């Protein structure tokens, strides 16, 4: 097969061998006088390191003998570090129940939580994974940013970690103030709880992997949940997987384990702003029998449907009492004052130039009205 994307230097004639290949700008390739065709064998001879499928010997990569340090660190008092005594006081304060509901299996629901409230997610009947989305109640463009939260804190979050909003807002949406599974730590498979590595299950991946159409994956549950609030599928975003244990294996592949939650386990958040939240009870239940497609998982007599592993989740919203929040205020976004390196748009520069040509007063710098039409 001939390849005509490169040109050769040191070519004496059409039949001569060449020893060096150089890439040329695209306009050279478009010039019929510059284009040449070469076989893959010729290219491989010219540059064996680049063209070889498995070049030998293998490259040696220098790795620092010193362990890497976290990429995102902050000094004490930074917005990145929660004021632990303050949030401990909030968590232990008296509270008044504002809203409570139980989310059935394989369903989704959205709800509002005012700034300064406590949001409690719990497992009333035993282990169950939930997929959580968050938006600013007044501006849904400000929504939870799982990737940056993962960088700022960790791949799995717990007490005093925060969930952050997307650019250009970049501020805490909630702070975790209590986690009954905080002691889970790291298991023998390097799994951890409350996952930010993965995202929600969805019908598109399910159809791709299994060929099945199924309407009650977490993505679909969240879509249905937010429709009454004027949002749609495009507003659903990467999630916090609550009560879910995940990790990466030795080859860097994502894995999930059965949820360690027991009846009554909980995760509590302090709302740092007015919020709209949505939660899905994962169709995989506690993930002990997870598998793509609506079939079962397991072996022999142990094979059963994932539905057998599904349980409800409970949501409670509380008002904080006792004056604990006196002096507290919502976080503001970073005060970036730049324009991302952009100047006046090219079109306006051209318009100004045309105005200056038509009106001598503009060339002299005097005020004038520019009318092009």
UniProtKB/TrEMBL annotation:
It holds the Pfam family DUF1989. It comes from the Eukaryota. Residues 102-276 form the DUF1989 domain. InterPro entries: DUF1989 (IPR018959). This is DUF1989 domain-containing protein.
